[in-house]
Amino acid sequence: xxxQNFLGExxxxxxxxxxxxxxxxxxxxxxRELSAVRGRDVSLGSVYASVDRLEIKGLVxxxxxxxxxxxxxxxxRYFSVTAEGLRAVQTTRRVLTGLWKSLPSREGDLA
Length: 111
Description:
The protein is built from 4 helices and 2 strands. It is an alpha+beta fold. It has one domain (about 10-95): Winged helix-like DNA-binding domain superfamily/Winged helix DNA-binding domain (Arc Repressor Mutant, subunit A). Strand 1 and strand 2 form a beta hairpin. It is elongated and about 60 Å long.
């Protein structure tokens, strides 16, 4: 059986946010999107640390855009989800959905 590496909560949210922003997004809009969806601040540093891990795993790829005078000559780093990243999102969704559906019915139902 192939060893599975399931996505952590923030990793999954980052992949979904990149997809929601139609790929080719960079750090600031990504952090804003995550903050809006989560209802609490998400630091830019945690976004970049997570995206770096996702890139090492082959789930995200990045490219540098053009340098701009507004950013002091620094280029933006744009992110997109790879085919492997999309498969990881789908696998995680399938596993989580299966877990939710397998919960017994209780008062104050969680599902």
